[in-house]
Amino acid sequence: MSVNQTSWTAKFLAVVRYEILWNIRKKKFLGMLVVAFALTTLSLAGGHIAQAFGGPPVKPTPDFVIKSNVGLGGFGFFLFAIVTAMNTVSAEFESGTIVPLLAKPLSRTTVFFGKLFAAFLTLLATYGFLMVYMTIGGFVVYGPQNNLHLVPLSLFGALFSTLVWISIVLLLGTVSKSSLIAALGALGIWLGTTIIGSILGALAGQGWILTYILGTGSSGYANGGLSPLGPTGNGVSTGTDSIGPNLINYILHPSWEVTYYKINLGGTTPGQILWERLYSEPLSTIILTSIAVALIYFIVFVGISWYAFRRAQITE
Hints:
Elements: H1 2-25, H2 28-52, H3 64-67, H4 73-85, H5 90-95, H6 98-103, H7 108-142, H8 151-176, H9 179-204, E1 219-222, E2 226-227, E3 230-231, E4 234-237, H10 243-252, E5 257-263, E6 275-282, H11 283-311
Antiparallel strand pairs: 1-4, 1-5, 2-3, 5-6
Helix pairs in contact: 1-7, 2-7, 4-8, 7-8, 8-9, 8-10, 8-11, 10-11
């Protein structure tokens, strides 16, 4: 039993090594680091760029790092999911390397999960670099930072949020055996949830549906109220893209209640927008729901991808 276990572990790690070396040879990992560096630099320099074009002066912001969501946010998580997973499986079929790979004494399950774990390690290394750079840059640009001990929660949330999108990209690539379809299909899903979500949340008052859909989710406000100009308070998003910031907010403000509003079209008069309060819920409920939703989507999509990969027909 020990020999079999060691044998399986050795094969699994061989696949992981193969995938990581393939990413390095194709400069995939280097490209991810460059993109991470560029996006984080843009996030850090955004205030100074705005100031150069007549915006407000940059002031010390002690909570910049823990509120930055690793400097990426929803679109950044989606973008890294595309780069990480769009050709993890599909490129093997497109290039024909799947034939010699599966000719080795490896089960398809070992190959599939080895590739998935390699994608996770690549993402972890990229986000780890990004968080260190963001922390140092935030200190240099915005002064001493508060609550830096909570930065690992931001890293955890970013990994979790991106892995959900990776599961979708992986599913599309495995089923279609096409990297292009994987990228375009995932882009369509992201655009659909983002655009339709904004309409449902602000106008139809049905933003609660977005709590159970990947992405930014519904928008609410904590520690505020409703003023003549609209909702006030700290903005909170319920989606899987905001797991990290919501965890940090819960540690700092465990009693927060998040309230949701919609625009009342029927009562709107010319030149005035009327907002209507919908409902409230604890921040803890939002966190538990978003984590559960992310886990379910990830397990289901990865499970379908694994099944499709095991059943895929290989033609030489």
